[in-house]
Amino acid sequence: MKTVLVTGGAGYIGSHTTLSLLEKGFHVVVVDNLCNSSYEAIYRVQKLTGKSVDFYEVDLRHSEKLQEIFKQHVISGVIHFAALKAVGESMELPFAYYQNNLTSTLNLLEVMQQNDCHNIIFSSSATVYGEEAIPPYQEQMKYGTPSSPYGASKMMVERILQDMTVASKSLHCVSLRYFNPIGAHESGEIGEDPKNVPQNLMPFISQVAVGKRDQLNVFGSDFPTDDGTCERDYLHVMDLAEGHVLALEWLLKQESLSEMAVFNLGTGTPYSVLQIIQAFENANNIQVPYVITERRKGDLPAFWADASKAKTHLGWETKRSLEQMMLDTWRWQMQNPNGFS
Ligand code: NAD
Ligand code: WQD
User: Fold this and answer.
1) Which residues partner with 305 through β-bridges?
2) pLDDT tens track for 77-133
3) What is the dihedral of CA 34, 37, 38, 42, to 10 degrees?
4) Number of CB atoms found within 10 A of residue 72's CB
5) Atom of ligand 1 nearest to the CA of 104
6) Widest Cα–Cα separation across the chain
7) 200, 219, 226, 273: which to mutate for ligand 2, most atoms within 8 A of CB?
8) At what angle do helices 94-114 and 149-168 cross, to 10 degrees?
9) How far apart are the first and last CA of the chain?
10) Pocket (CB within 6 angstroms of ligand 2)
11) In Å, how far from its chain's centre is CA 256?
């Protein structure tokens, strides 16, 4: 049985991926400092799968502790989710974002090298395409101007991984660029649990629906799109989790990679904010009161993935519909009105 280290495995995408890895027969070691998550997510993943996870509450910025974990387990590959991820917060706290996201990654790469671990999958983002790119985004497009320190940290880590892969030949890296992950595991036992006021659309909608917030602010209706609201490529978090398992299986089969492999993970179909509200209302038969407000600074009118490369190379494509995303979001929110707490 191969052992995978999942950093940030207690978080939203990490917990769903840990579940998929366990179901596929991997042994999973999770390292998370719980700065934006709860151990309850790991507890529930174990309950759902009937399998155990080796969990370490460790901050990746402390490399001695990471070193101890690598001494205790033979790690075949790493999936590196751990990062701070709030775009707006990163504009106010740029140092915290660079310090956390870069130091963590550098420590991890150093300890991996010292322990002969050569396979890493990195959580990147559609944000690396920047403001100038014309959708659908394709992997070979050049980096754009980062719109936030968060986005810049993702670009910088990609650059580090690419340079190290080219120099070493023995390091195998995959960068997965996610579009907009939403939804929850179909059990409703794990899902997205924002600690503060949700900044992203889907958790905000579900908190309005459950009565925790009065109404949704729709940020702008004068964009050059069909209905004037922004369009995004929303994908189900379980499709995203399964994409990581396929990427890992692919990576473990590679003899050598001359450069970092990059894959978009999205559906290829954009939906507007108003279409998402409508889809949530229709799927769940519940009203979501909203008002149109000013545009949010930095929002792009529309972007979506060209996801054909992941299909060709990894055999991955999304299976779950928009309706499924809405049903699963609501099941999680209804069953857990206060998240994991
Ligand atoms: P999340 O905040 O739920 O998960 C991140 C996890 O990392 C948390 O559990 C947090 O406690 C942990 N963590 C952060 N810094 C750490 C450190 N120094 N040491 C140990 N643990 C640490 O976020 P998520 O939505 O699951 O995102 C996972 C990854 O995917 C992130 O790298 C994020 O940037 C990336 N990503 C997310 C989205 C999205 O919309 N959610 C889109 C694109 C990319
Ligand atoms: C979606 C749409 C908003 C909240 C962000 C990051 C990106 C990636 C995914 C990590 C936009 C509108 C939102 C609200 C609204 N994360 N909206 N009212 O901005 O596409 O991407 O998360 O890598 O890097 O930038 O996602 O969910 O915040 O917004 O009208 O209360 O919903 O304007 O059009 P976004 P989002």
Assistant:
1) 137
2) 999 999 999 999 999 999 999 999 999 999 999 999 999 999 999 999 999 999 899
3) -100
4) 11
5) 18
6) 56
7) 200
8) 20
9) 33
10) 85, 87, 125, 127, 180, 199-201, 204, 216-219, 230, 232, 273, 296, 299
11) 26
Sheet strands (E) in the chain: 3-7, 27-32, 54-57, 77-80, 119-125, 172-178, 180-182, 216-219, 231-232, 234-236, 261-265, 271-272, 290-293
Distances (CA, A) of 120 to 31, 92, 146, 182, 285: 15, 30, 23, 24, 42
* CB of 37 sitting under 6 A from ligand 1: yes
Q: Catalytic pick from 12, 97, 150, 271?
A: 150
Q: Name residue 173's beta-bridge partners.
A: 120
**Is the Cβ–Cβ distance between 22 and 245 less than 8 Å?**
no
Ligand 1 probe mutation, 32, 90, 304, most atoms within 8 A of CB:
32
Please tell me the number of the ligand nearest to residue 14's CA: 1
CA atoms of 225 and 205, how far apart (whole Å): 21
Spell out, as residue ranges, where the chain has pLDDT lower than 70: none
Tokens encoding 265? 């993970």
- 17-60, pLDDT tens digit by residue? 999 999 999 999 999 999 999 999 999 999 999 999 999 999 99
- CA gap 310, 205 in Å, rounded: 30
Residue written as token pair 């990746």: 60
State the pLDDT at residue 322: 98
User: Quick check: CB of 165 below 6 Å from ligand 1?
Assistant: no
The CA 264 to ligand 1 mean position distance, Å, reads 18
d(CA 54, CA 47): 14
- CA-closest residue to ligand 2 atom 36: 200
The reply to whether ligand 1 has any atom less than 6 angstroms from the CB of 12 is yes
Spatial distance between the Cα atoms of 234 and 271, rounded to a whole number of angstroms: 7
Spatial separation of the C-alpha atoms in residues 98 and 177, rounded to whole Å: 19
